[in-house]
Amino acid sequence: MERRDVVIVGGAVIGSAVAYFLAAQSAGRCNVLVVEKDPTYADCATSRSVGGIRQQFSTPENIEMSKFGAAFVKHADDYLTVDGEKPTVPFVEGGYLFLATAAGLPVLRQNHALQRELGADTVMLDPDELHRRFPWLNVADLAGGCLGVTDEGWTDPYGLMQAFRRKARALGATYVHDEVVAMERSGNRVDAVRLKSGNSVPCGSVVNAAGMVAADVAAMAGLDLPVRPRKRFVYVFQCREAPAGVPLTIDPTGVYVRPEGTSFLCGVSPPEDEDPDCTDFEIDDRLFEAVIWPTLAHRVPAFEAIKLARSWAGHYDYNTLDRNVILGPHPAVANFYFVNGFSGHGLQQSPAAGRAIAELILHGSYRTIDLGRFSYDRVTRNEPLPELNVV
Ligand SMILES: Cc1cc2nc3c(=O)[nH]c(=O)nc-3n(C[C@H](O)[C@H](O)[C@H](O)COP(=O)(O)OP(=O)(O)OC[C@H]3O[C@@H](n4cnc5c(N)ncnc54)[C@H](O)[C@@H]3O)c2cc1C
Fold first, then answer.
1. Hey, which residues does 184 pair with through a beta bridge?
2. Which of 8, 231, 347, 349 should be mutated for ligand 1, with most atoms under 8 A from CB?
3. N or C: where does the chain have the smaller number of CB atoms within 10 Å of the terminal CB?
């Protein structure tokens, strides 16, 4: 097959964001091939995401990335319109509300101070203020909350992915329905990727955007990647007397809930020791019955009377080192780029991550947000850069 400047493995939201920024920043001069094994995108994390966008992180780079993510989604029409047709990328600016008991308050305050320093519009609320703003909330056991007033909320993950894809193609990127099954490597370079169809594609660079199976793709180039598939459930319920104005609310237990039309979405991440690597899609509604519902009913008494409507499973590309993205080239294989391990916040970071990879490939360095601390080097040195706010 024809030589490509860049081959991207995986064409969901991250692969398509990278393709878009490469095409846009090079004015179409970069010859990009996106290899996607499932063009229905039925099972990828992107299609199963909750679509949340927040600035409430503990790592400065994550705050900066999500600030750009919010701005990008807000102005998606400016970036992703094709032939006058606007993308379907709504931004419901419903806010995020992180709640804390006395034990969690110091960390919440510390994160809030950092977010404010970096320009995020988040406010600390004491229990009285929480009660005044959200009368449906049980604040009896709370010491405070942190609310994102602007630039926090949720979008349509599938819509954002398709909009990136469509615009990338309009700018000259090519998508092929195939699977990358091997890589041809000599010394510190990948020379070509091999496809299931039997074709081999010589390339200048390879970008690993394979989501939960990113470690398998890294292994094709002989590289280790501490990213594992971790199953998460999303439950959809209806509430007889639904409270109004519910932000994406995170209980101190980690249970989250947000409105979706007239329904609500909710979920929780399991404790680390009950979170095995897992690629199946089997759903366990017992988690809803035993953990999530009782927690929600305690926090929002109106949620005593709810009815589970449906549920689904999806997979985080979970970075077991520190729950932050691994971004940029491998130190020993200079043309193999990682953009993996988002651990549950990749949708909102797709614009910043796509732009970052394009900057590295086209210019050799970051031009906007310096994401050097997210490089693979920290894996080599075994120096985690942990993110505390993983939902
Ligand atoms: C339940 C759930 C809720 C989430 N909620 C949020 C949220 O609220 N906010 C947020 O920011 N993020 C959220 N996320 C995380 C976010 O969805 C992911 O970080 C993001 O979608 C990852 O995108 P990706 O393109 O890297 O991976 P994916 O969407 O998984 O796509 C990877 C693609 O690579 C393809 N592929 C894999 N291997 C190959 C190969 N060898 N050859 C060709 N193609 C290949 C796959 O078919 C797939 O299409 C959530 C995730 C889940 C599962």
1. 192
2. 347
3. N
Query: Which residue puts its alpha carbon closest to atom 12 of ligand 1?
Result: 345
Amino acid present at 381: R
What is the spatial distance between Cα 321 and Cα 330, in angstroms, rounded to a whole number?
16
Structure confidence at residue 69 (pLDDT): 98
Q: Measured between alpha carbons, how far is 329 from 380 in angstroms, rounded to an integer?
A: 13
Distance 59 CA to ligand 1 centre (A): 21
Query: What is the full DSSP assignment across 289-318?
Result: IIIIHHHHHHH-GGGGSEEEEEEEEEEEEE
DSSP secondary-structure letter at 277? B
Q: What is the pLDDT of residue 232?
A: 98
Token pair for 204: 């200048």
Q: What is the pLDDT of residue 323?
A: 95
pLDDT tops 90 at residue 226: yes
CA dihedral defined by 373, 377, 382, 383, rounded to 10 degrees?
A: -20
H helix runs in 155-276, sequence order = 157-170, 214-220
Ligand 1 binding pocket includes 48 (Cβ within 6 Å)? yes
Q: What is the pLDDT of residues 163-202, one digit of tens each?
A: 999 999 999 999 999 999 999 999 999 999 999 999 999 9
Tell me whether the CATH fold assigned to 4-86+156-226+321-380 matches the one assigned to 233-316. no
Tokens representing 67 are: 């600030």
Nearest CA to ligand 1 atom 10: 345
DSSP symbols for 40-63: T--SSTGGG---EE----SSHHHH
Domain ranges of the chain: 4-86+156-226+321-380, 96-148, 233-316
Which amino acid, 378? R
Residues 6+ apart with CB under 8 A from 78: none
CATH 2.60.40.1180 fits 233-316, yes or no: no
Residue 1, pLDDT > 90, answer no
According to DSSP, residue 206 is labeled: E
Query: Taking the complete model, does pTM exceed 0.85, yes or no?
Result: yes
Contacts of 3 (CB under 8 A, 6+ apart): 31, 201, 202, 203, 204
Superfamily covering domain 4-86+156-226+321-380 = FAD/NAD(P)-binding domain (3.50.50.60)
- Cα gap 385→48, rounded to integer Å: 27
Number of other CB atoms surrounding residue 282 within 10 Å = 8
Q: Give the position of tokens 């007033």.
A: 149
